[in-house]
Specification:
Alpha-Beta Plaits; two-stranded antiparallel sheet; 11 strands
């Protein structure tokens, strides 16, 4: 996919960095951090929205704490046409339980992550899927998605604080947090727009402003709400996405590799799943050469640790929402 490149300055990058840290911050607060008047910050945010660098603002919600399990699967196509590909993508996007849908270049064509209450629900969904599209699936890989570590987009800055790298984590397990319909209504609205005003949330949920504030504070305290972030189209800024999947010779080296690579400003996510690779690292980089330099660096520092690795790149993201749309 070819993009018309958009040039932004360091002030814009700092604004994006702050929005990704907490997209509910006021323009006044962001302005103090980046050295701009709040009106200038608002102008720049609107410009980034208009030119498509900012896609939307979203909330990271830990649906594990709402009683869900997460299944991830990768599909390779066969006998596919552009029309059928679009139909299959739309099928997964429109499913109310999917929270991530995207296509890739590399070792698989389509990735889907889905929330389910139990495996029976997933089985019913998957049976329906196979009846419709089995003949177009050359291969299917399933895994139980159990841990997601998100890191700050430090590559946006000329300099960054290493102690400030980690953003948030979703971890399978732990206690289920009790919620009611009002909590879920608030979460649904925030999942689509992390910057929606409290007054608007109160209006749409038929509640008072104080009630909504208290509910949000409680959801944050119980770590159901983990972060408010911004969805950035980094391809328009000249970056490429690479997801590397690593098989290890010695699994005990996994923690050491993570402790080493987590300070790389281009690392944005570490995934963990039962039934797939030992280590999964996601990067935004300038080009393939920079990606290979990062992997060479890991290989040199941990010469006996890695058995092999493969990667996918250049995703088209069709859906990302951290809450089932029941």
């Amino acid at each position: 996919m070819h993009y018309y490149m958009i040039s932004i300055d360091l002030k814009d990058r700092k604004i994006l960095y702050e929005l990704d840290y907490n997209s509910r911050q006021s323009t006044t607060k962001i302005g103090k951090k980046v050295g701009l008047h709040k009106n200038v910050v608002l102008y720049r945010i609107n410009r980034l929205l208009k030119n498509g660098v900012i896609q939307n603002f979203y909330t990271v919600i830990d649906s594990y704490k709402l009683g869900y399990e997460s299944i991830r699967f990768y599909i390779n196509f066969r006998h596919i046409t552009p029309e059928i590909r679009k139909e299959i993508v739309d099928y997964f996007v429109n499913n109310k339980y999917t929270w991530w849908v995207g296509t890739f270049e590399g070792s698989y064509d389509l990735a889907i992550v889905i929330w389910v209450k139990n495996l029976k629900d997933f089985h019913v969904f998957w049976e329906k899927t196979l009846i419709k599209y089995h003949k177009y699936f050359r291969s299917k890989i399933f895994s139980n998605y159990i841990h997601l570590r998100l890191f700050r987009e430090s590559f946006l800055l000329d300099d960054f604080n290493k102690s400030d790298r980690e953003q948030s984590q979703l971890i399978r397990g732990g206690n289920i947090v009790e919620t009611d319909e009002l909590d879920l209504k608030i979460l649904r609205l925030l999942s689509y727009d992390a910057r929606v005003q409290i007054s608007e949330l109160a209006k749409k949920t038929n509640s008072t402003i104080d009630t909504v504030k208290n509910r949000i504070d409680k959801l944050k305290k119980n770590e159901v709400i983990l972060a408010y972030r911004v969805n950035i189209d980094y391809a328009k800024l000249g970056y490429q996405f690479f997801k590397v999947n690593i098989d290890l010779n010695d699994y005990k080296e996994r923690g050491r590799i993570i402790n080493y690579i987590k300070y790389n400003p281009h690392l944005v996510m570490i995934d963990k799943a039962i039934g797939y690779y030992d280590l999964e690292l996601d990067f935004w980089v300038k080009n393939l050469t920079q990606f290979h330099e990062i992997m060479d660096e890991i290989t040199i520092n941990f010469p006996e640790a890695i058995k092999n690795y493969e990667y996918v790149h250049d995703p088209i993201k069709y859906k990302m929402i951290y809450l089932p749309q029941e």
